Amino acid sequence: MTSSYISEELRQRVRVTAGDRCGYCRSHQQYLLTPLEIEHIIPSSREGTNDEENLWVACARCNRFKSSQIEAVDPVTKEVHPLFNPRTQKWSSHFQWDADGVVILGLTPIGRASVEALHLNHELSIAVRRNWVAAGWHPPSE
Ligand SMILES: [Zn+2]
Fold first, then answer.
1. Cα(37) to centroid of ligand 1, in Å?
2. How far is the CA of 27 from the centre of ligand 1 (A)?
3. How far is CA 70 from CA 80, 84, 127, 130, in A?
């Protein structure tokens, strides 16, 4: 059965497991004006399921840029790599914050490809993060 239905109980469980942070840019719900979205790691358009192991949360911005992508080109190696999987991979194994805590640096081909594909360092995101840093809200410690 293919269904777009995801129960509120499952949505809540995914939000809690994700720590109420976007799996990609790590923005916390308490600093966002729009709700974190339940996203499909493998997109529905690519036969991704509504099973818990295929769901995570993303901010509206990351989810929009991710869209139906599952892989992207690493700008360093010029090879195609899978996008970061926030459920099975550790963010800090693939990314780190720059010294100012505002720019996401890709540490691996997966990290670099994901930074590019999801526009994780758009100028608006950097401008907002600078304000979060000034307020003492950012970057996240974990
Ligand atoms: Zn995000």
1. 10
2. 6
3. 10, 9, 27, 29
